[in-house]
Amino acid sequence: MSGADFPREVVGMRRALHRHPETGFLEYRTASLVAGRLDALGYALRIGPEVMRAEAMLAPPSDREIALAREAAIAAGGDGRWMARMPGGQTAVVAELRRGDGPVTALRFDMDALPVQEATDAAHTPARLGFASARPGMMHACGHDGHVAIGLAVAERLAAPEAAWRGTLRLIFQPAEEGGRGALPMVEAGVLDDVDLFLAGHLGCLLPSGQVATAANGFLWSVRQDVLFHGRPAHAAMAPEAGRNALLAAAAAALGLHAMPRHGSGVTHVNVGRLEAGRARNVVGDTARMEIEYRAETEAILEGLAERAGHVIRGAAMMQGATVEVIARGHSVSAVSDPAVRTRVAAAAAQAGIGRIVAEWPIGGGDDATFMMRRVQARGGRAGYCLIGADLAAGHHDGAFDFDEAVLEPAVRLFAALVEAG
Amino acid sequence: MSGADFPREVVGMRRALHRHPETGFLEYRTASLVAGRLDALGYALRIGPEVMRAEAMLAPPSDREIALAREAAIAAGGDGRWMARMPGGQTAVVAELRRGDGPVTALRFDMDALPVQEATDAAHTPARLGFASARPGMMHACGHDGHVAIGLAVAERLAAPEAAWRGTLRLIFQPAEEGGRGALPMVEAGVLDDVDLFLAGHLGCLLPSGQVATAANGFLWSVRQDVLFHGRPAHAAMAPEAGRNALLAAAAAALGLHAMPRHGSGVTHVNVGRLEAGRARNVVGDTARMEIEYRAETEAILEGLAERAGHVIRGAAMMQGATVEVIARGHSVSAVSDPAVRTRVAAAAAQAGIGRIVAEWPIGGGDDATFMMRRVQARGGRAGYCLIGADLAAGHHDGAFDFDEAVLEPAVRLFAALVEAG
Amino acid sequence: MSGADFPREVVGMRRALHRHPETGFLEYRTASLVAGRLDALGYALRIGPEVMRAEAMLAPPSDREIALAREAAIAAGGDGRWMARMPGGQTAVVAELRRGDGPVTALRFDMDALPVQEATDAAHTPARLGFASARPGMMHACGHDGHVAIGLAVAERLAAPEAAWRGTLRLIFQPAEEGGRGALPMVEAGVLDDVDLFLAGHLGCLLPSGQVATAANGFLWSVRQDVLFHGRPAHAAMAPEAGRNALLAAAAAALGLHAMPRHGSGVTHVNVGRLEAGRARNVVGDTARMEIEYRAETEAILEGLAERAGHVIRGAAMMQGATVEVIARGHSVSAVSDPAVRTRVAAAAAQAGIGRIVAEWPIGGGDDATFMMRRVQARGGRAGYCLIGADLAAGHHDGAFDFDEAVLEPAVRLFAALVEAG
Amino acid sequence: MSGADFPREVVGMRRALHRHPETGFLEYRTASLVAGRLDALGYALRIGPEVMRAEAMLAPPSDREIALAREAAIAAGGDGRWMARMPGGQTAVVAELRRGDGPVTALRFDMDALPVQEATDAAHTPARLGFASARPGMMHACGHDGHVAIGLAVAERLAAPEAAWRGTLRLIFQPAEEGGRGALPMVEAGVLDDVDLFLAGHLGCLLPSGQVATAANGFLWSVRQDVLFHGRPAHAAMAPEAGRNALLAAAAAALGLHAMPRHGSGVTHVNVGRLEAGRARNVVGDTARMEIEYRAETEAILEGLAERAGHVIRGAAMMQGATVEVIARGHSVSAVSDPAVRTRVAAAAAQAGIGRIVAEWPIGGGDDATFMMRRVQARGGRAGYCLIGADLAAGHHDGAFDFDEAVLEPAVRLFAALVEAG
């Protein structure tokens, strides 16, 4: 499929994107199609290193992962010309259109999918209708396919001659929102520095179809860590006592981290999402690696949680006579939507014909758009984060996740109305 | 390096083999060099499917692993002509020489290495002398390089015109002794069915240099299992309660398995040697896979241990609302050396000039040569398993493992003397 | 000390009570002194079985515990005449004063202490000033000593001839608030059935001195369980394999329960507060008992949590081949303060000279006064729960807990003003 | 029942003793009846402090436990006159008879029972025949009732005028064999210092009825420890994060200790036999106490095991931010029977009509008679430990333990023959 064949209407776009999920910093097909479409619409493009500071990318993919992702992207109709401008996993695309003087309005859309196996049963609409993921073990399980589709449709609508707005429109297509790695490199490249009005949003989040929340609350502070345990191998039967069992250290640490106390005054979350340990069945497991995420309602609670986690991890290592390394893998911050933006979102939603407008709604997870919001606010601009209600078939990140596509079109109208009201 | 360049003396052979370790069912370079050498010596060869029943191979390598192993073998001087006769990881080589009528004598030598990272410091002789493993993460950490070198030297000595023996000499070069997967396919291919005298042996095992044990004892019964836990993914912050945490199920199972009670009347060992779980940092870990080995002194103790392990595994799954599959990955049996073979080993050791002969010594681990011993004994032949004492730098399966090479030459004399005493 | 010697001013009363903490359903000294004082003030008393339904008492103390508590109460100046009316741990006291027609106003004060060892260092005011607990391992670590002192002072003030109020005043001195066992038996005895206005309150809760919250929020639903694991004993060295280790089942369950996932949409808490297992060092631990409390923000979240806990507990038992019993030990409900009561609390606080009035404040823990609130509301009355700010030396239930006694006098004025405003 | 009523034949004695089990250092009834009987037979008695060094008693019972045990002993027919000579749990009795010059021969019989609940079903012979334990939670589950009965019968037989032996006969009735606490205080009091021939023995141990092992092997070295974890209490819902959870530290330590690796070259055993933690359901558990026993085949393996256990315990504490104390509670040593004693046991067994004599048999558990054996051997005497085969209904320390009483009478003959063969 070439860019020219890519559907024009928003539901079609979403389905075409859903079929080819790409994980963070590997969105080669998605980003190249986005670039092709926006270029065709007359937007000025900045791509890859122009809008991402490579040094600020956490855990970038390996050369091998990139090569495989590019190969798969090409095979699925990705556009190699644009991909050539995205070295090293730098898959961000920023598109700009200027209509005379006026404020700089930036909208953020995230593009990445997740390493989740999509459901295959007929109860799952993408499977039944034939647009489920074509890539084993990867899935748009958080709705970013919808976000990109909205972004492209907004781009088209506002590029039309009859669209009534003035100033500068900047559309930010961000990679690697999951894991919170994509926003910071774009912030550090200066993409947000001159923005007057910034808006990001998310579909779903347990807000029903037909509703919009003018601001998301409940953004959590978070820290991500990798933990490496180093033990000592030994023959598991001849001399198990000579081993230092890093596998069991990791097992105890995983249980201990999940068993850390809740906090009396604020939300906390802990997840050991990945654990890999040992080398062979008959050798005492001498290495282990865990990927962990901590989240908390406030910075102080997060710090307390992370400190306690350090005790858990070091104690578990000591229990096995193992040593341990903790490697920082990024962090997230909280942010608050400006009242001025909330008001404009409410007005735009009303204009878009969305019946029920709620003031705030919990985002549940998090979104590294908060780094962008804080930068805009720090430079004197206004920033906000809205939620677009959408009935869900299953929770975010679940293999049976799916959302009510009927909300896409009103969402497009909302973003367009917001810009036109500029 | 081609086969022709391969050294002729036993220490040189051992070092050349040490440098290119290959794990079970992937011994392409080793087996092809063995085949080339034995062919040149005039032995009749049977290779791969001729001496291994493919259906009896447990956990054979994937096509991709085989392709990579062949590529590496070729690059390191392996002989592609022989490798062509070893499809699907069937790397066994059986060489036979006949000198008139007489008994069939079979000697077994195992060829595989381990997924252990070799030590690199100067205290480690292979590193200091430059023959340490050239393959990251793989190592001859159990002395099978020495076994192959002994086998080749024995082959050469007994092929010499002056060698005084009659009957049939069968040299069995077995793959995949680690994990106990290689012997059974050879037994089921009938390689042992007509053997009158069978001997296998092992270097080291904490028996000092200069000693031989005419029989190893302490062979353990064992069972190997892979365990798969299936949970349910969920966003780790938005709805962790919707997840079913297979990663934590595996962690609890690993701890619980190692914590199973010892037995009051016999040795047991348990090892969860490998654990892999979860897919992403911010998703509740919905899958887990463990590789486990259970060993016990008697069949009855092993059965009790395995039954209890089933409770541990299913209970750990239930704790997380996960489901679980247990996949059999083979087993080992115990075997006892025949007194007649012990006597012959003692005589051969004396003739080989080995000063101190002990009747029995614990093998510590295990060896699937026991399958061969039992088959020989079941068909009316005699079988034995001896230990060749060798001072060690570190325990078997340790990255600093190394053995006293001075024991190689006497070992060659011992095996040759045994056959010549036929 | 006899009742006659008991101090009259509120700080003195609090200190005298602090020195003799009594745990739930064993408040013999406290309740007898309360009864004596209120009787002397002219209140009509109902005591023990008259105001508690014995069948509704969960986990009542044993006869032996009661005998020891009575003995200690007598030794510390408790009044045996009143104690005689409190069989079987039924230590509730309800005092009533009537002044013509008018509404029935009920105030609830809880009397029980905790099995916490009080701090002994000079930084701890009760220790420094000599009124720390005289009973090893028991302590007023939640401020109920203050509550009782306030209640007695309010009783005295409102019994004075000059006190301007009409109707019926009912003072409820409740046992066993900790663990949530004391309120329900009083509700079921009908003590709340005719109440028009009900108010309970709590000191501290992280609200600073000089403030009052007109309503507490964050009452959590809770369930309490005891869990018994039954295994099989065995000689720990001769035949450990014959045992079924209930001790390890409980250990795994405790870790697994604390490691249950947080909920994405509401607060949860889990605590295994007590664990007792095994019988002797050299016997496999064949019995275990755990005391657990689950709390959650909504009834639905609590149900999900308790269901998952069932899996954890049964799975941990299965891991050890043990069996398990789960015994219900009561539950708590949430309740909401009526706006009318909030308004009256605000007015009374202002009248009492308390400077800063906040609308709501989280209670943090819970209080089974919610059972009383719900009964009053169900019968058409109004109910509320206020918080009296008090600076704390350490958190509730901590051995160094202490509160700013300067808040006692204003609290007395607040309750009295509320009644007088009737 | 007074001493006078105590049965004279060995099966009756065993049953009478079985009915009143007493745990270590609390064998007041048993020891007083033993003393009364031996006194009546003409033996010279040394009792309590005369034959036990109080300073060498590990974990002696509390005054309260002693008072309760004495009370129960009196109620069950214990003889207060003898008990008066046993202060502080010093319940040992040494009886001596001299017949002219000759060697000093000492026989050891242990008296204590276990804190095990006896089976009550009809399949359990003591229950069916009405001589099961009358004391809830206590049981002669290791056969020491049989040992005492044998000792008394031997005493009677050898006191008879027709008994043909010369020299000094010393009968040692030892308390607290379980837990290995009773022998050392007697050794340190000098009871063994002049012994020429020492024999101890045990019933059962999986050796069938009708057999005797002239020596037990497999005595294990052992260490006993109590571990105290100190955390910090906190309200489990208001501020769980302020707590330091000693209960969970103990849970993780218990699992981690049982999961310590087996040893490749020798038997090990670990048992956390008792765990008590926390104070109340709604308080974070701030204290925990564990009773642990480690055993190993050699002193070196035991030291390695104990060192590793230290890491497990300290690591588990660190995981929870708790502190930890480890308190030594004694140790056991191994000992080897002298060949001369083995020969004499074999001869005596033959004379006693016991059909099948085996040279060695594993004891399975351990016995602190090894301290006595070592002292005798250190002073130039000869020592041995034999096993009296006895079919068992269930394993030692199991609530359904029972042994074949038919072996008692031959055992009496064996010990008597040994002395008479002097």
Automatic annotation (TrEMBL), chains A, B, C, D:
Keywords: Hydrolase. Residues 229-307 form the Peptidase M20 dimerisation domain. It holds the Pfam family M20_dimer. InterPro entries: Amidohydrolase (IPR017439), Bact_exopeptidase_dim_dom (IPR036264), Peptidase_M20 (IPR002933), Peptidase_M20/M20A_hydrolases (IPR052030), Peptidase_M20_dimer (IPR011650). PANTHER family: PEPTIDASE M20, PEPTIDASE M20 DIMERISATION DOMAIN-CONTAINING PROTEIN. NCBIfam families: amidohydrolases. This is Amidohydrolase. It comes from Nguyenibacter vanlangensis.
